[in-house]
Amino acid sequence: MLLTIDHVGIACRDLDAAIERYRGVFGLTLVSQEVNAEQGVKEAMLATSSGSSYVQLLEPLAPDTPVGKFLERRGEGMHHVGYAVADVRAALAEIGAAGVRLIDSRPRHGSLGASIAFLHPGDLGGVLTELVQPLR
Ligand code: MC0
């Protein structure tokens, strides 16, 4: 079901500084910057050299958002893992039937036009997990 690691999401306080860190240290390529109001973030996608997986940098739009609360509780660091799937609706049905709590019962809008859905970290060993159906 999981095709590849699409991205690793990293919570940061200052998006511009984080972008410069990942470009400067690793030479990653900045491919997009978006505001996702529904998710409460402004975010950037930086491609690895394979071009098919990304570092996603996430700055909260407000303290009372998922990433804002995460920063307050844990500080900067890895926030979630996003796995590519062929069909996010089918994957949600299968994973839900296996007893994992679905944060999103239907897909939402994600980076680069993807359809995304989150799974609860409490049922996955403390890892917030995202399913990503990339835009074709
Ligand atoms: C919170 N918890 C986490 C966590 N965030 N555990 C692992 N990884 C995280 N990122 C844990 C807390 O430590 C706590 O555990 C429990 O969840 C409740 O935390 P809370 O701070 O009270 O937060 P809640 O319950 O209000 O919400 C947690 C939840 C939420 C994961 C349900 O953050 C959520 O709905 N996330 C999905 C949406 C999201 O993260 N969007 C931002 C990225 P204990 O054990 O102390 O109870 S948007 C994105 O990434 C888009 C742009 C994209 O990829 O395209």
What's the short story on this structure?
The chain has 136 residues and is α+β, with helices and mostly antiparallel strands.
Describe this structure in words.
The protein is of the alpha+beta class. The chain has a single domain (4-133), classed as 2,3-Dihydroxybiphenyl 1,2-Dioxygenase, domain 1, CATH 3.10.180. Helix content is 23%, strand content 37%. It is built from three helices and eight strands; from the N terminus they run E-H-E-E-E-H-E-H-E-E-E. The chain has helices spanning 15-26, 66-74, 88-97, and strands at residues 4-11, 29-36, 41-47, 54-60, 77-84, 108-109, 115-119, 129-133. An eight-stranded mixed β-sheet has the order 2-3-4-1-5-8-7-6. The longest helix has 12 residues, at 15-26. It is globular, with a radius of gyration of 14 Å. 31% of the residues are buried. The mean pLDDT is 97.
